[in-house]
Design brief:
The protein has 2 domains: about 15-80 and about 150-295, no CATH class; about 85-150, no CATH class. The protein has about 300 residues and is mainly α. A two-stranded antiparallel sheet has the order 1-2. The protein has 15 helices and 2 strands.
């Protein structure tokens, strides 16, 4: 039980705020207007959850601090996100059964050149989107790129902010970018060290658990009328079945959720002070039938 750490910031609050400011971006069509980064609290809550899980696996505090920085910036490829427009485009795509992630797109359209998923989507569906009442100008195309071209946008933004990261004293390493890309591009960690792969899995699991509990995202992205933990953990199990999450990471997230470690964070994601008794009861049922792997062994890391 000593291995359980409550979600917390492991870096200074001022550094966290400066990092979150990197999500803000000048509007390309409105000179002098700054687009505030979308849902920064999501990034902050996710980073706290990820650190708690990583520490449960007994990674060193210094490494987990660095990891938390990457988790804080995991959505950086979505700088400039326009929630109403983004939501209209991707709600339309889901209704049509169109793949919304690069790997899913390539599975359906294997002839698409790697990294050109955005261009392929627009070539196929621009006319249909415009016919549905969504003008597909350059700004709308950027919203498509935020999902199907996430790697390209993330790399571009990281190049832009690298001088700021140096000024903030952040030591940036290639693995930090790789774990940020893992959800959309699982192939980037195919040959990675076990501890990097584990960090990628933890980020995916925590980010998705927070997103499934996030009332604002549910409203803006998916027109979702409610949040349901059963659906969230069903999705995490699906990620396990497809190989995105490993058994150790999935059961550790379940274990910590069952212990109430994430209660406050998940309540905040819903805009509430505390979870309902029924939600708490559901989370308590997630306790694995065997000891969680995080309490039995550590993963080798530098």
């Amino acid at each position: 039980m000593n291995s359980i750490v409550r979600p917390a910031l492991l870096i200074s609050r001022s550094l966290a705020q400066n990092l979150l400011h990197l999500y803000d971006y000048p509007h390309p069509q409105k000179p002098g207007v700054l687009i505030p980064g979308y849902d920064k609290p999501h990034a902050l809550r996710t980073a706290k959850m990820c650190a708690a899980v990583a520490l449960a696996f007994r990674h060193s505090l210094s490494l987990v601090r660095q990891y938390q920085i990457a988790c804080l910036l995991h959505d950086l490829g979505r700088y400039g996100l326009d929630p109403p427009l983004f939501g209209r485009i991707w709600s339309w795509a889901r209704r049509q059964g169109i793949p919304t992630r690069p790997a899913e797109w390539r599975a359906v359209h294997p002839d698409t050149p790697y990294g050109k998923e955005t261009e392929a989507f627009l070539a196929r569906y621009r006319a249909s989107l415009e016919a549905s009442g969504i003008p597909m100008d350059q700004w709308a195309c950027e919203q498509v790129e935020m999902r199907l071209g996430f790697a390209r946008r993330l790399r571009r933004r990281l190049r832009e902010v690298r001088p700021i990261l140096r000024q903030l004293g952040v030591s940036w390493a290639p693995w930090m970018q790789h774990i940020m890309l893992y959800y959309y591009y699982p192939e980037v960690l195919q040959n990675a060290p076990a501890w990097v792969r584990q960090f990628g899995e933890i980020l995916v699991g925590c980010e998705q658990l927070e997103a499934y509990s996030n009332r604002r995202r549910g409203r803006d992205y998916y027109a979702r009328p409610y949040e349901c933990f059963a659906e969230a953990f069903t999705y995490l199990k699906r990620l396990y079945e497809t190989g995105i999450l490993g058994h150790a990471v999935l059961t550790t997230i379940q274990f910590l959720a069952a212990q109430g470690v994430f209660d406050r964070i998940l309540a905040a994601a819903r805009g509430e002070k505390c979870l309902s008794p029924s939600d708490q009861q559901f989370l308590r049922t997630l306790l694995p039938s065997v000891d969680s792997p995080c309490l039995l062994s550590a993963t080798t890391s530098p």
